[in-house]
Amino acid sequence: DQQVKQNSPSLSVQEGRISILNCDYTNSMFDYFLWYKKYPAEGPTFLISISSIKDKNEDGRFTVFLNKSAKHLSLHIVPSQPGDSAVYFCAASVGGGADGLTFGKGTHLIIQP
Amino acid sequence: GAGVSQSPSNKVTEKGKDVELRCDPISGHTALYWYRQRLGQGLEFLIYFQGNSAPDKSGLPSDRFSAERTGESVSTLTIQRTQQEDSAVYLCASSLMSSAETQYFGPGTRLLVL
Questions:
Q1: Which residue of A has its CA nearest to B6?
Q2: pLDDT of residue A15
């Protein structure tokens, strides 16, 4: 049973527009959520995180929103740039530790020129 | 090097053979993790080493999988009697502490079992 779900395998967005990537989770014990970005033939790199005590965290063009009641989080990228084309993984943990980190299947974001 | 390195980058093997995958973590990182990513799937946690503590092996899918770490340096993941379902990208990560935000991933080893 998947505890972290990314239901869109791919997403295509025009350059300059907003990209919204979604993630749902089922385990109520998760209290820390992360987004990773992965280019082909490279390992994932940490992008942004949010603790369950917050509902929004912003870092430059990247904002993560958390809706605890809906067990849903989203990553907004605005404006989208060609270099943002990558696979984005949502991950969740209990307590922020890396052990036991649970990942979604990823969403392949394609930024169209 | 500055990052986590893994070798080989690609490995093709025949079903039933043993394979050994290597991870060189960032120097000084006490925590080391192995993950597996099968095609179309997310990353699956396999095993976690923290300093000299006993490793957390809770993610290993079967007793054909084992891993070792020498002190706080190199780790090897061994898969015995490989099966086709073992085909995946095996990713290693290390971190200075155990927090997810400080985790740095290697480029992975792409394993194909024929």
A1: A43
A2: 97
Tell whether B10 is within 8 A of chain A (Cβ). no
Contact by Cβ (8 Å): B49, B32 = yes
Which of A89, A99, A106 comes nearest B56 by C-beta?
A: A99
Q: What is the mean pLDDT of residues B67-87?
A: 94
**Per-residue pLDDT at B67 exceeds 80:** yes
Q: Which of B95, B98, B105 has its CB closest to that of A43?
A: B105
Question: Strands (DSSP E) along B1-114, which ranges?
Answer: 5-7, 10-13, 19-24, 31-37, 43-50, 65-69, 75-79, 88-95, 104-105, 109-113
The distance of B107 to chain A (nearest Cα, Å) reads: 4
d(CA A52, CA A112): 33
* Tokens matching residue A73: 């989080």
The per-residue pLDDT for B1 is 53
User: CB–CB of A49/A70 below 8 Å?
Assistant: no
Report pLDDT digits (tens) over B5-21: 999 999 999 999 999 99
pLDDT at A77 over 90: yes
Paired strand residues for B12: B112
Q: Does B50 touch chain A (CB under 8 A)?
A: yes
User: Please, are residues B111 and B78 in contact by the beta-carbon 8 Å criterion?
Assistant: no
Taking 80 as the threshold, does the pLDDT of residue B62 lie above it? yes
pLDDT at A78: 97
Q: CA A82, CA A12: separation in Å to the nearest integer?
A: 11
DSSP B111: E
